[in-house]
Design goal:
Blueprint lengths: L2 H26 L12 H10 L7 E13 H4 L7 E12 L4 E6 L3 H6 L4 E3 L1 H13 L2 E3 L5 H8 L4 H4 L7 H5 L1 H4 L19 E5 L2 E5 L8 E6 L5 E6 L5 H6 L5 H7 L3 H17 L3 E5 L3 H9 L4 E2 L3
Parallel strand pairs: 1-11, 3-5, 9-10
Antiparallel strand pairs: 1-2, 1-4, 2-3, 6-7, 7-8, 8-9
């Protein structure tokens, strides 16, 4: 073997080893949390019952867009087959009012963000009409596929009177929604809270920064006693919680996510799921998890 042939083979071997290591680290490996995150359900339930008035009697859901990512982008190491993703909006129906959790996004924003799939304009229009009538609007976090539908409303300034965004969500709008209508937010006073905050009978916000600085969980206890925890994008799919695995590291780097914080939240949610299976976990984009809740009549398809 000649000197140059040997050098070429050694170089190719080094590249292969480095490439394999990078592929494992960026695509396959999930990691384990180095910090702790806890949800005090007794305190959450106390707060949910602390606000006077009737709790929600049902929760309705709109499927506003369907798309897909490679499975390993959703759960690190799950392969390259397509994994279905759906953009949702939820309506809490109280006896005399409604509240909206997450507002999806416009078709234009979806395409601009690189999401290709099926967009349901009729569902978006029902959601927009529901926003106009809602007594309360809240989002799990400040990414466009959760807050974009609100930001796109022509009467946004008026809707903000019923909207409870936290300070971190507002502070990061320029980062995640650079073209948002700044003028509408002039004089807007966002929420500030440390860990938990009751915002309506049976509805409690739970801080969960990591996926974004303003990420939060939304706990809902219905009048009949059913309990729900809307996870936003802490978990895109329920499988993230079940196996305590994050998105591929390449994805979290692109999202500029605090991976360790999210992993600690997934570990806490996994513990909650095992200890208290009666709490229905609702991931951010899992069509199968939502379909199961619809089949069990825990969620009702379509806003009124």
């Amino acid at each position: 073997m000649g000197k140059w042939t040997r050098r070429i083979l050694i170089t190719l071997g080094v590249i292969a080893v480095v490439g394999a290591g990078a592929y494992w680290w960026l695509i396959l490996e999930s990691g384990a949390p180095s910090r702790s995150y806890a949800i005090d359900m007794s305190e959450v339930r106390r707060l949910a019952d602390s606000m006077p008035g009737d709790k929600a009697r049902e929760i309705r859901v709109e499927h506003i867009g369907d798309f897909a990512f490679p499975a390993t982008a959703v759960v690190a190491g799950d392969g390259w087959a397509n994994s279905a993703m759906t953009v949702f909006s939820y309506e809490l129906v109280f006896p005399n009012s409604t509240a909206i959790v997450d507002t999806a996004l416009t078709e234009k924003d979806g395409k601009g963000g690189g999401l290709s799939g099926t967009y349901h304009q009729d569902a978006y229009e029902r959601m927009s009409a529901a926003l106009r009538n809602a007594a309360l609007i809240v989002v799990t976090h400040e990414h466009l596929d959760h807050i974009g539908g609100l930001l796109a409303q022509p009467n946004l300034k008026q809707l903000l009177a019923a909207t409870k965004l936290n300070k971190e969500q507002v502070d990061n709008l320029a980062r995640y929604a650079p073209n948002y209508p700044r003028e509408a937010f002039r004089g807007y006073a966002p929420l500030t809270y440390e860990k938990y905050l009751a915002i309506a009978p049976g509805v409690v916000l739970i801080r969960a920064p990591g996926h974004t600085p303003g990420s939060q969980l939304v706990y809902v206890k219905e009048a009949g006693g059913a309990e729900y925890l809307f996870l936003g994008d802490v978990a895109w799919h329920l499988r993230n919680v079940e196996v305590v695995r994050e998105r591929a590291r390449l994805v979290t780097l692109m999202l500029r996510e605090d991976r360790d914080a999210v992993l600690s939240q997934l570990a806490a949610l996994n513990e909650l799921k095992l200890k208290e299976p009666q709490v229905h976990l609702v991931p951010g984009h899992d069509p199968n998890a939502v379909a199961a809740l619809e089949k069990a009549r825990l969620l009702v398809r379509g806003f009124r």
